[in-house]
Specification:
By secondary structure, the chain is α/β, with parallel strands linked by helices. 36% of the residues lie in helices and 17% in strands. Strand 5 (166-176), helix 7 and strand 6 form a beta-alpha-beta unit.
Length: 334
């Protein structure tokens, strides 16, 4: 097993954007205890953010929770479906594009409700149907349990496209951080298992490389939002001690190590300049381009990990959201 150290940055970090730094300074005034296997939150994480109706806030969007089949031999999966109310835009009976969202949290913490705001905004802006997935977390359920849950959700969405009023040829899978890792893994599985074909993959500051050996992974050791210590814990929980930081880990679990990244759905890869995933994300785009694949890459100057959620009013967040929306329109053809 590779030995990796946690602590302060061993390489000088790129400075944070001033608006980002202000928020980081405020966060630092209320430090939280470090995550450990023993302190990973499980109860009550679904009530940490506003409920669906509060997030929707009067917009013409309907939602429902459903239980759908999980992978063979595994438990069923909870999902929340969001869709525009047909009467709001006069498109009754029209097949809509769809977005399958996978939440972040290192695959060790989190709940789909954490990203309801992001999902609802996409539904409202683009008039699509969205499915927000609950997947099994490590260490109780190590890889590939969560990945297989997300792929099963894609299979269900595709198979039930007619019932949901979805165009099966316009499904995008996406997520932030760990959700971006899982979305990239789902895209690889969809290619290798011969379907369903995806229209695109939306990878927002994705967690792709378990080795934690890039320059940026050393620059943001102990600073920023998602930090090196938490990342080391996450990969250890996901892959176990033998493979935690090894380049021999499955490329589906750690897509940075996928042997072949050709033939994938078009990717949108967004990352902050001032976060530990910067280098693994830019390298993933480079590998896709080398195969002739499509990867629209945005590296936002001074952005911390997940800056659009932590600092939604920052100028770089507004610019990032606009670029993201442009790509979604181009992929969905709307």
């Amino acid at each position: 097993m590779t030995v990796t150290a946690a602590g302060r940055p061993t390489v000088a970090p790129v400075p944070f954007d001033p608006e980002v730094q202000l928020v980081l300074d405020a966060i630092a005034q209320n430090p939280q205890p470090a995550l450990t296997r023993e302190t990973l939150p499980r109860e009550g994480t679904d009530t940490m953010f506003p409920d669906n109706d509060t997030v929707i806030a009067g917009r013409a969007i309907a939602w429902e929770d459903r239980i759908i089949p999980g992978p063979a031999g595994a438990p069923d999966i909870e999902v929340t479906i969001f869709r525009p109310r047909a009467s709001a835009d006069g498109t009754t009976g029209q097949r809509r594009a769809a977005y399958l969202n996978i939440h972040g949290g290192g695959q060790i913490v989190g709940h789909r409700s954490w990203e309801t705001g992001r999902v609802v905004d996409i539904v409202a802006e683009h008039g699509v149907v969205a499915v927000n997935v609950e997947y099994r977390l490590a260490p109780e359920h190590p890889s590939p349990a969560g990945l297989e849950d997300c792929y099963a959700a894609l299979l269900w969405l595709h198979a039930h496209a007619a019932e949901l009023g979805v165009d099966p040829d316009r499904i995008i899978v996406g997520g932030g951080s760990a959700g971006g890792c899982l979305a990239a893994g789902v895209a690889l599985l969809a290619r290798d298992r011969r379907g369903p074909d995806l229209a695109g993959q939306l990878l927002l500051c994705p967690m792709l490389d378990n080795t934690n050996t890039t320059v940026s992974s050393l620059q943001y050791d102990g600073i920023g939002t998602w930090q090196r210590e938490a990342n080391l814990l996450a990969w250890s929980c996901l892959l176990g001690d033998e493979l935690a930081y090894s380049a021999e880990a499955s490329g589906y679990a750690a897509p940075a190590h996928a042997a072949d990244v050709s033939g994938l759905a078009p990717a949108f890869i967004e990352v902050g300049e001032a976060e530990m995933f910067r280098d693994e994300d830019t390298q993933y785009a480079l590998r896709i381009w080398a195969t002739g694949g499509q990867a629209e890459l945005h590296v936002w100057g001074g952005g911390a990990h997940g800056f659009d959620m932590y600092m939604p009013e920052a100028e770089i967040s507004r610019a990032a959201l606009a670029a993201r929306a442009s790509w979604l329109r181009r992929i969905w053809g709307a």
